[in-house]
Amino acid sequence: MQKGTALSNFVDFWQHLPSKIDPSIFSIGSFQVRYYSLMYIVAFALTYLLVAYRLRTEKFPYTKEMIQDLMVWGILGLILGGRLGYVFFYNFEYFVRHPLEVFLPFSFANGVKFVGISGMSFHGGLIGVVIAAAMFCYIRRMRLWDIIDLFVPCVPLGYTFGRIGNFINGELWGRATDSAWGMYFPLDVTGRLRHPSQLYEAFFEGIFLFVILWALRKKRPFEGAFLAYYLIGYGAVRFFIEYVREPDAHIGLYFGLVTIGQILCLAMVLAGVGLYFLRRSSASRVNG
Fold first, then answer.
1. Beta strands 24-28 and 31-34: pairing type?
2. What is the pTM for the complete model shown?
3. Reduced 3-state DSSP string for the chain
4. C-beta atoms surrounding 63 within 10 Å
5. What burial class does residue 195 get, using C-beta atoms within 10 Å of its C-beta: 0-12 exposed, 13-18 middle, 19+ buried?
6. I want to staple 163 with a disulfide (CB 3.0 to 4.6 A). Which of 36, 40, 98, 201 is the partner?
7. Crossing angle of helices 209-216/155-169, nearest 10°?
8. Per-residue exposure over 7-24, b if at least 16 CB sit within 10 Å of its own CB, e if not
9. How many other C-beta atoms can be found within 10 angstroms of the C-beta atom of residue 193?
């Protein structure tokens, strides 16, 4: 009886955990510093430390100063790409009507109100990072594919903290479920038990992919291989997790079957497969 009570208490605690977490570290009026922002800082710092470790232990011809400069470009590319990706992929009609809200942390719908910048797209952020890295490598005369292969095995573990930030924020929850491991999210007006899909993503898109890519990091068949691996791996994992992630209310499902995220993930997988064969063919021509 005591075991049953203990289990019941744990399940109740687990299901109501989101409501016990304050997403704000501190606030001054309507201005808040949230754990979500802190998670981004942790993600960037962890990525840098892992890259620095690879510089010390593997044969990459770069200095820490070069990597630090590149990361500044990468962070800017991530923020700009992530934001523009959300605007174009997920809510284009709204931002056409409210263009000032694309980059300004204010709502102008009913007067001026500070609301922060809400809405980032992973796929847009990825595109932004690759463009920023390409520009940096062109200016500094560095080998883009080599730099990408240096960074890619380090990225997923940092990405884990981004999804934990989503969980702490109580956003991007999953679809309704009857499972005991479901959770109630305080911002969900329906009050339904839902999949904690942010945690699924943190594990599979973050830790799971990191373990695989990190284990393979010294077995590079050709330059650019790791970007192909990442595109295929992330795209496949995210595609299936989307089946338990709540679709954006203003978009819903395409053809009654798939989300916009799944469509973008399919594009990622196809791009990864194409990139793999393209880079392998290029390496064969060079070596042959």
1. antiparallel
2. 0.88
3. CHHHHHHHHHHHHHHCHHHHCCCEEEEECCEEEEHHHHHHHHHHHHHHHHHHHHHHHCCCCCCHHHHHHHHHHHHHHHHHHHHHHHHHHHCHHHHHHCHHHCCCCEECCCCCEECCCCCCCHHHHHHHHHHHHHHHHHHHCCCHHHHHHHHHHHHHHHHHHHHHHHHHHCCCCECECCCCCCECCCCCCCCCCECCHHHHHHHHHHHHHHHHHHHHCCCCCCCCHHHHHHHHHHHHHHHHHHHHECCCCCCCCECCCECHHHHHHHHHHHHHHHHHHHHHHHHHHHHC
4. 10
5. buried
6. 201
7. 170
8. eeeeeeeebeebeeeebe
9. 18
Assess contact for 152 and 142: CB atoms under 8 A.
Answer: no
Exposure class string for 216-236: b at 16+ Cβ within 10 A, else e: ebeebebbbbbbbbbbbbbbb
One-letter amino acid at 88 equals: F
Tell me how far apart the alpha carbons of residues 250 and 238 are, in angstroms, rounded to a whole number: 20
Per-residue pLDDT of the chain (288 residues; tens, 9 = 90+): 466 688 889 999 999 999 999 888 877 776 677 888 889 899 999 999 999 999 999 989 999 999 999 999 999 999 899 989 888 888 888 788 877 777 776 666 666 665 556 678 889 999 999 999 999 999 999 999 999 999 999 999 988 998 999 999 998 899 999 999 999 999 999 999 999 999 999 999 999 999 999 999 999 999 999 999 999 999 999 999 999 999 987 788 888 889 999 999 999 999 999 999 999 998 887 766
- If we measure between CA atoms, which residue out of 91, 162, 172 comes closest to residue 126? 162
